[in-house]
Amino acid sequence: MSLGHLCLVLHAHLPFVRHPEHEDFLEESWLREAILETYVPLLWVLEELADDDVDFRITLSLSPTLVAMLNDELLRLRFRRHLDRLCDLSEREVRRTKNLPELAETARLYRERFRRARRDYEERWHGDLAGAFRRLAESGRVELITCAATHGYLPLLRHNPAAVRAQIRVAVAEHAAVFGAPPRGLWLPECGYYPGLDRELGGADVRYTFLETHAIDHAASRPRYGVYAPLFCPSGVAAFGRDPESTKQVWSSKEGYPGHPDYREYYRDAGFDLELEALGECAHPLGIRRNVGIKYHRVTGATESKEPYVRAWALARAAEHARHFVGARQRQIEHLGAWMKRSPIVVAPYDAELFGHWWFEGPEWLGGVLRGAASGERVLGLITPSEYLAAHPINQVDTPSSSSWGYKGYSEMWINGKNDWIYPHLHEAADRMTELAEAFPNAAGVERRALDQAARELLLAQASDWAFIMSQGTVVPYAVRRTREHLSRFRRLATMVRAGVVDSEALEAIEAQDNLFPNLDYRVYRRDGASLRSVPRRSDTQPKA
Amino acid sequence: MALRVAAPDENELPDAYGRSRVALLPVDPYHVHAYWEVTPEDCLWAAEQLGEALETPRWVLRFYDVTFVTAFDVFVEVGARNWYVDLWSAEKSYFVELGLLAGDGFVAVCRSIPAETPRAGPSPSYDPKWATVSASPDAPVQAQPARDPELPPAAPELRVEAPREPQRDAPAQPPLRGVANAAPHRASSAARAEAPPSRSTSLVGSSSSGRPAG
């Protein structure tokens, strides 16, 4: 047994961006970019480690909206088409840069990557990336967990307990259906937590979650080991706290690794640098430029004048940074081990999309960390939360503090002057959904379908992404539109059900548009959650006769 | 594919839902957000209740501090329909009433459910309690009190008759031996599926709620 543990966690999430109504919808490219730049490279790295028989461990949260999109035939088709176009573009780029020695090698790099991605997507994974992650999980090296159904920010939905319960239970049910086993852990969207939320997790048989550092440090009774051991919430759900030190080394734009001058510069993309004609179908048909993922420059420094990318330098830097990270964790664990009378666990969670998409060399860095940490150094061992809890079944019981990992550590990012208008509508809709679930306890046929779809629309409206985008001021009209659309569809469906006249043509159109969560059961919104409860609650409510 | 899910103007949201209500949402330890709707009928009703007041009635959010049973008022512009309120202390539980105030007269139109603001720093309390939760996937997620793992081991078995030291953190517990049921095992789903059914359900103890099969 090593002196201490490193628990690496990646949280992969995208909002549901599926637009069958348009041939080429700009926001759908979020998914294509994330697949090509993050999920595929992660699979490359993790599968290579597994093929090399490296006994690594990593915990991977796949949000239910992301999994729904990975499994969607239309989006798969569109991803293939996108890959074809990129392969063509990269071929043209290789020809164009033939006599530009500073760019030629990088152009060939993209051509080989895109070709490999296309080959593996078809022949190795057969379009089923969720299945590829499931196979890694079956090897015991990857622990797959879920998130809330549509990444709802739960502290601001809590006024209606059924709204929170539905976000959790729909996620758990979908995960079990896709991956063949219920998740043992759940990533709380934005680490948003409040005392009592753990009861909803425990009620869905979720055994652990992750919280921001101060959720643990500000717990009701000061935790003996800080974030270096989990707390059991009163419900029995384990809360693992984020380690600030390993966070900063990767996340920080100033001190973090990804800002190193040798790494690829994200913000110089051929989609904006090339002539529009040269981009061909990779530009939007309306002539709107967008990232194509071919980037020829490196970070260089705090300058607008970026130098050409040199792959060999970047890879050497990623290997060096991986060694540095593992070394820093070893020293950290030695330091912690000197005062803790148990094996410390250092929990390092990151957004998955940081790796590859934002930080191009991130997957290689991660591979280096996993290889280095798994290579039998006695100080440090990789672990999953489940393994830790099995090895350390006694932990401090405490009530973590309300918190998030967002700006300022609480809820301000998701409720401020730019987005607070959504909450009266979201809360009203959740209350209406609960009323419907109570009023129609045994709906069948088209009525049942309308109620299930109403629940999907409510969940989609609750996605934290929309409030976040409104705060950040990026694609605000899209976020506003999505919020309004889902709430409006919800209202139309609710009105139909109430009136006893479901327009099946309209229902079919909405079902075809927002086609996620096939296993959803609207009765999850009943006040007592009785019909779907897996564990009896220790509350005072009597089951309804 | 010509899917027509909604015409653009069908996505307008209602300005009001026709029901007076107020909601309180914590933003951080020192800020809360309140939003409300007051129907015209309730506006009239509240004014009537106040009768002929000497002062012009004003709308207030009356904050009730559940923790210390105190209250304070925040004047608001009722037409704004939402307000951010700065607070001077953290870790409180409040509910608010939205109402009309004139002199000593206050007429509440609606009341929020309680909202708790977070703690702003480490707790002054250090009183560690310990628990165990069976790691078996078949066992319910339930914490059972356990002994502080840093305490010296319990008295050896040879001295079974010796009175045990009262354990401050672990009153009247099932035997700790039950913890052995949570022996380390690999976390692969295959290994989980093969794990024998946990015997630790006996640790559920006094809970009357048996767990349904499946």
Major beta sheet summary of chain B: 5 strands, antiparallel
Q: Give the uncertain stretches of chain B in residue-range form.
A: 159-214
| Largest interface pair | A-B, 81 and 69 residues
With helices defined by DSSP (H or I, 4 residues minimum), what is the helix count of chain B? 2
Question: Rg of chain B, please?
Answer: 28 Å
Question: What proportion of the residues of chain B form beta strands (DSSP E)?
Answer: 25-35%
Order of helices and strands of chain B: EEHEEEEEEEEH
Give the % helix of chain B. Answer: under 10%
How is the topology of this model organized?
The complex is a heterodimer of chains A (545) and B (214).
Chain A (H helix, E strand, L loop, with lengths): L3 E9 L16 H23 L6 E5 L1 H7 L2 H24 L4 H24 L4 H10 L3 E6 L13 H19 L6 E2 L9 H7 L4 E4 L1 H5 L13 E2 L5 E4 L2 H8 L18 H4 L2 H4 L31 H29 L5 E7 L10 H13 L5 E3 L2 H7 L2 E4 L24 H18 L5 H17 L2 H9 L3 H24 L4 H10 L32
Parallel strand pairs in A: 1-2, 1-8, 1-9, 2-3, 3-4, 5-7, 6-10
Antiparallel strand pairs in A: 6-7
Chain B lengths: L20 E8 L2 E7 L2 H11 L7 E8 L4 E6 L6 E5 L6 E10 L2 E7 L3 E2 L12 E4 L11 E3 L42 H6 L20
